[in-house]
Amino acid sequence: MKHRVMCFGFLHLSLGLLLAGAALAATPESLLIGPGDLLHVQVADTPEMDQHPRVTDAGEVPIEGVGNVKVSGLTPATAAIVIHDRLIAAHYMMHPEVMVSVEQYATQSVSVLGEIKAPGAYPIGTPRSILDVLALAGGLDAAADRNILIERRGNPADLVHYNFSNDAGQAISGQVVVNPGDVVIVPKAGIVYVLGDVNHPGGYVMANNESKMTMLQALALAGGLTKTAKQGHARLIRNVNGSYSDRVLSVGDLQEGKVPDIAMQPGDVLYVPFSYGRNIAVLGAGSIAAAATSAAVYALP
After folding, report:
1. Where on the phi/psi map is residue 116: left (φ > 0), alpha (ψ -120 to 50), or beta?
2. Are the C-beta atoms of residues 140 and 117 closer than 8 Å to each other?
3. What is the reported pLDDT for 282?
4. Is-above-0.70 flag for pTM?
5. Can you list the domains of the chain with their CATH numbers?
6. Buried (b) or exposed (e) across 65-91, using 16+ Cβ within 10 A?
7. Cα separation, 297 vs 292, whole angstroms
8. Which of 23-32, 124-133, 218-227 has the lowest mean pLDDT?
9. Three-state secondary structure call for residue 63
10. pLDDT above 90: residue 10
11. Beta carbons of 133 and 112 less than 8 angstroms apart
């Protein structure tokens, strides 16, 4: 009985290893060979075919028996297949087992730009996770958008999106790989302004996972209204194609659910006037928008 249990455990472990290996083998390689890369080309049981060619500007490497072979833009595994087929087509070898690996990448740095604490180029010799790369650049700054773009090496049209979730588990589980030569771009998040008779007037970064904010959320971040605020005469000021729209609304109606909450857009200004006794003049939309540019900006905690 003990022997049967041990056999079953061994079979279970073997099956697990086979499945894990199959899953790993099925994972596509995303780091492509490029000009200047140093390759290691091997053919099994044929040591004289062992080569260390550097990829030319034309994207080719010289291979014994067949001449130049185009490998730029291919994964190492695909390059091995191409060389294998060329060796057979040239009648140089009948059944070659070709292996290709990258010994040194010509571009061994990643550029991190935008709303990051220490933007610049950082050396990486192998693919790294996005969180590792962001850590190299000191992490996001207070005005960073959570939606990050990665431009793949040599292909500006190949953009990978990563959402740096405020939830640590999601941020880790949703990670993507950054390759040498990639460019990581951290955009600036939108800012909305809450001014007037509120407890903490200022600008608030739309730095949640969705990069969105409603009027009630903005009011909450600003500490709510004071007792002297004219909540029935709040104004939502928005820049529309260079001119300002000025909408009067009641904060009380919003809070009581009489009207739906309003989604704010980057650059919006919510202005809550002071009480009649404290109002000196009626401010125009342009004056309020101009005042917003000098307001203190706060990031989400």
Report:
1. beta
2. yes
3. 58
4. no
5. 38-104 (3.30.1950.10), 109-186 (3.10.560.10), 191-298 (3.10.560.10)
6. ebeebbbbebbbeebbebbbebbeeee
7. 10
8. 23-32
9. strand
10. no
11. yes
3-state secondary structure of 275: coil
Q: Are strands 177-178 and 109-114 parallel, antiparallel or unpaired?
A: unpaired
pLDDT reading at 88 higher than 90: yes
Residue 191, beta-bridge partner list:
205
Say if CB 172 and CB 166 are below 8 A apart: no
Phi, then psi, of 189 in degrees rounded to 5: -75, 155
**Does residue 260 register a pLDDT over 90?**
yes
Q: Count the alpha carbons within 13 Å of 115 in the hemisphere toward its beta carbon.
A: 18
d(CA 240, CA 269): 12
Q: Which residue has the tokens 């790989």?
A: 177
Cα 166 vs. chain centroid, distance in angstroms? Answer: 13
What does the DSSP 8-state code read for residue 116? B
Which amino acid is residue 174, in one-letter code? G
Whether 100 contacts 87, CB under 8 Å = no
Q: Tell me the range of 18-27, 67-76, 152-161 where mean pLDDT is highest.
A: 67-76
Bridge partner residues of 272 (DSSP): 196
Residue 179: how many CB atoms within 10 A of its CB? 19
Return the structure tokens found at 112: 């991190």
